Amino acid sequence: MKKFFGLKKAAARKTEPLPLAFNRHRVYILPTAHGLLFLIILFAMLLGSINYNNNLGFLLVFLLGSITLVSMIHTYRNLLGMEVLSVSVEPVFAGRTALFRFLVRSESGHRRAIGFVMEKNEPVIENISAQTDETVTVKIPTRYRGILRPGRLIVWTRYPLGLFRAWTVVLPDISCVVYPRPLAGSFQSSGGHVGDESDVNSIKDGVDDFFGLKPYQPGDPMGKISWKSFSRGLGVFVKEFAGNSGASVMLDYDALGDANREHKLSRLADMVLKAHNMNVEYGLLLPGRTIAPDKGERHRHACLKALALFDLSK
Amino acid sequence: MNEPHKTVFPILAALVVAIFPHIGRLPPWIIFWCVVMWGYILLSFRFNWPRPGKNLRRVLTIIGIFGLLFTFSRRLDQDAYLGLLAVMAALKPFEMETHRDRMITVFLAYFIVITSLFLSETLLITIYMFMSVIVTTAVLIRTNDPGGRFTANLRLSALIMAQALPVMVLLFFLFPRIEGSLFGLWFSSAAKSGFSDSLSPGGVVMLVENDAVAFRVSFDGETPSASLLYWRGIVFSDFDGRGWHVQRHSPENPALPKGQNPTSYTVTLEPHHYRWLFVLEMPAEPLHRAAFLNDYTLRTPRPVSRQMRYEMTSYTRYHTGPEDEKTLRQCILLPENSNTRTHQLAAEITADASTAVEKADQVFNFFRDNGFTYTLEPPRLGRHPVDDFIFASRRGYCEHYASAFAFMMRAVNVPARVVGGYLGGEINPYANYLIVRQLDAHAWVEIWDPENGWIRVDPTAAVAPDRISEGMRSVLSAGGAGGFFERLGGLSSFFHQARLGWDAINTGWRAFFEGYSYEVQRALLEKIGIRSGVLAASFKAMLLMVALAGMIIGGYAWFFLRPPRQKPDAVQKYYARYCEKLARAGFARKPDQGPIDYMQLVLKNRPDLQKQIAPITDLYVRLRYRDQAAEGDLAAFVEKVRKFDPALKR
Fold it and tell me: For residue A42, what is the nearest residue in chain B, using CA coordinates?
């Protein structure tokens, strides 16, 4: 019985590798609240038919009862045999919504009104075409930095009559890095002065000094692309500025005067973003961890991830 | 809701389909109410009008309930229940924002569909009911899947219903029926039809304009001749100067009439919501479901609110037994100072007659010979209706003649009373039963003769003999009072035949469908070998029902939920054949061996096969693992495997 309802089992279940097919051992089915109400109505009508010895009443009650039973099979079949192929997620800043993209597939026939839900959020309801890889995006709002483990994905369906609900529980091995929420403020690199805008200004001056063009490499900020040369058909070039050539800054946790740890991390996240946008070489100095100055998307992610994971155990 | 037409409109359609068969029974204001509410909803989505909020909805609900209380204050019956459902169905679509609301509204539609069991169990209603279930189920599907097309919803709904039918049939036949009812029948409908308990001018004419079926009769043997088909229902023995009334308290269980050549038959009576049953004159035996009154009529304990079938035996030529003095005294009572001229006239006409029968003959002749005419549109009569009729108008129909005749017999001290019922009927040629319609309603007289008992006298025969011998239809067409069908001329007979054919089908259906009761089920169960033993037969039937239904549903589950069979593709199939050939030559492929490893192993021992094996393996790898397989690769592969022979040395 326990196995049938799948409640206990799901709670203790370990994460499962994808791809994963919904076979008979993992698809459960129970009447919905509406289904129970419908059965109660049918029972009342059965009593009425018995009382009046009304064969038309009997016929209707039995017709609707049989339809209910048959609909159970249709509901079960709507879920059975579907597959979750993979899942992916991009890191987000705290306060934003993490988008878990599940790739699902139905080899045998199309599926209608399949609900995907994680963690009591609004379910996403999708139709799944036959023999096509379909992407289903499940949104989870984030609040805090760190690692978001979404837990169970419940895939369910009430189609066609809404009297039964078939569902299965998938615990995919997926987590989403949640960066600290950026907090705007002055730019402070190590050795700089708290509240003093001079550092920022000096770099900003540098930014304005156009130095030349270099070929685009993946990871270069979009804002620096020279659209003018691109539109002339010369290829994709990135503008380089005098200020950043050779210059690098260290973003220092301890240099921030603020007492609140989360505050500091948010400030640092903001500075990482600014430095990245200005195409400055920057490094990160955290207590117990140092990231050497560098540039590019990969570096940006490494820095933000370090901020996200910093001191998480406490 | 962004797309109301996806869910709201279908739900409205389901409600309309569900309510449609009840339109005739709903008070006009409720129909108007539904039309206004639903019309507003449709237009509000079209023109973006505001929809009523919670408070306005509450006010409307209260108005609706007051309307219901006002309309149905006297009686809480089926119509009140139906009215309540309709009022709710009109308002509920205003709140369909959530899935839950929409589900509840669709359930409401199902509920209204089921209410049609209060209508009647005709074939047409049954078919309509199935159609409504298809529509409502399609709307339920739409509610749970607003995306698809409605035709697809309908198709799936029909499919689900088709799959449900075997289980339904099983449940229908095997679900144990009981005798009697669980809680008693508390609903009674107000729509009465047929005779009322008094006979006053105008009453029967109302019936004559109504060609609804009163009852159907199938005779066990020969159908008696038309002039003997007097269907006795009510006896009116109290006259108040204007109209005739049923005696308040009538004793029961009279001496049974005697006669020869009994006629046995089964009557299927349509619900008329009175307590009398109609039987061929004279009933020869009591009926266990009804009281047998002293005036040879039958009364049920409760009004007949559903179709009722009963078997009866009658003598068309009969001799009633002795009658008690009290009844006879009552049957010569006339109010003082009423219709005095007729009083005198009766005495004059019958002056030289001595027996009751002679007196009746004289009065009968009087009607025949004095210019009385039969008409369904008689003039109005005054305070002394019998006097007015005999001395002034001389125009009337059965009721006038019966009333005047009985009056005159009483005036000369012959006990007489008026009998109400039906005369004749129409044989349905397609199924050999008799249809008696409301328009066959008739009234006649019976008089008491000490020697012969109660004798039937039909004074209408004096003026319209056709009415007796050929039935009401002859009178209707002759009198020009014909209905729609008569006016159609040539087409009428076609329509009439079609109607009789349909009536035969419908009656056959109802005899089977409604007749399926406790007794019939018992007989069916015995036939398949289920009898009461240690376990009651009904319990065994229940077990069988659950087992068979489980098998059907289990069969569906097995068929629809089995894993899809993987069809091995041609490449796989032919590679397996190639491996088989090599295995026979002594080189079985191990499960962990890839095609190239396998080839190398074989070539180590049989380098001579190089020319055959290498291209096969090459093609296989290309077809299986790379996307660059060319057009003819598969055909070449198949060909090479076919021709492959390890014994061949080249």
Answer: B111
Pairs of residues, one from chain A and one from chain B, whose beta carbons lie less than 8 Å apart: 144
A231 pLDDT exceeds 80? no
B299 and B403 together in one domain: yes
Q: Do the Cβ atoms of B126 and A65 come within 8 Å? A: no
Closest alpha carbon to B31 in B92, B39, B10: B39
B650 belongs to a structural domain: no
Q: Which residue of A has its CA nearest to B556?
A: A73
Structure tokens at B45: 């989505």
Q: Which residues of A touch B125 (CB under 8 A)?
A: 56
What's the confidence (pLDDT) of residue B8?
85
pLDDT tens-place string over residues B293-306: 888 999 888 888 77
How does the average pLDDT of chain A come out, rounded?
A: 80
Q: Do B388 and B522 fall within a single domain? A: no
pLDDT digits (tens, 9 = 90+) for A56-101: 889 999 999 999 999 999 999 999 989 898 888 999 998 889 999 9
Which residues does chain A have within 8 Å of residue B168's beta carbon, measured at their own beta carbons?
A: 59, 62-63, 65-66
The whole-angstrom separation of Cα B341 and Cα B549 is 77
Among A37, A62, A74, A163, pick the best mutation site for testing chain B contact (most B Cβ within 10 A).
Answer: A62
User: Dihedrals φ, ψ of B300, to 5°?
Assistant: -85, 155
CA dist B388 and B394 (Å) reads: 8
| Local structure of residue B390 (DSSP, 8 states) | I
Contact status of A138 with chain B (Cβ, < 8 Å): no
Closest Cα in chain A to B516: A55
Taking each helix axis as running N to C, give the angle between helix B490-513 and helix B123-144, from 0 to 180 degrees, rounded to the nearest 10: 70
Q: Are residues B163 and B247 in the same domain?
A: no
Sequence ranges of the domains in chain A: 2-178, 198-309
Q: Predicted confidence band at A110 (pLDDT cuts at 50, 70, 90)?
A: confident
Whole-angstrom distance, CA of residue B46 vs CA of residue A25:
48
Identify which of A57, A66, A74 has the shortest CB distance to residue B171. A66
- Residues spanned by the domain of B602: 570-643
Residue B648 lies in a domain: no
**One domain for residues B551 and B616:** no
For residue B268, list its beta bridge partners.
Answer: B216, B309
Q: Is A113 on the interface with B (CB under 8 A)?
A: yes
* B260-269: pLDDT as tens digits: 888 999 998 8
Asked whether residue B93 falls in the same domain as residue B232, the answer is: no
Per residue in B220-229, pLDDT (tens digit) is 888 888 888 9
Same domain, B352 and B287: yes
Q: Distance from A266 to chain B by nearest Cα, in Å?
A: 40
What's the structural domain count of chain B?
4
Q: Mutate which of A60, A125, A126 to test chain B, going by most B C-beta atoms within 10 A?
A: A60
How far is residue B268's CA from residue A225's CA, in Å, rounded to a whole number? 93
Residues B164 and B209 in one domain: no
Q: With respect to residue B508, please indicate whether it lies within any of the assigned structural domains.
A: no
Residue of A nearest to B103 (CA): A34
SS (H, E, C) B365-376: HHHHHCCCEECC
Q: What are phi and psi of A297, to 5 degrees?
A: -60, -45
Verify that B160 and B209 share a domain, yes or no.
no
The residue ranking higher by pLDDT, A199 or B34, is B34
Best B78, B130, B139, B144 member to test A by mutation, with max A CBs in 10 Å, is B144
Q: What is the mean pLDDT of residues B596-607?
A: 86
Asked if A108 is an interface residue toward chain B (Cβ–Cβ < 8 A), one would say yes
**Is B506 inside any structural domain?**
no
Question: Contact A60/B172, CB-based, under 8 Å?
Answer: no
> Which of A220-224, A272-276, B476-480: highest mean pLDDT?
A272-276
Q: How many CA atoms lie within 13 A of B370 on its CB side?
A: 15
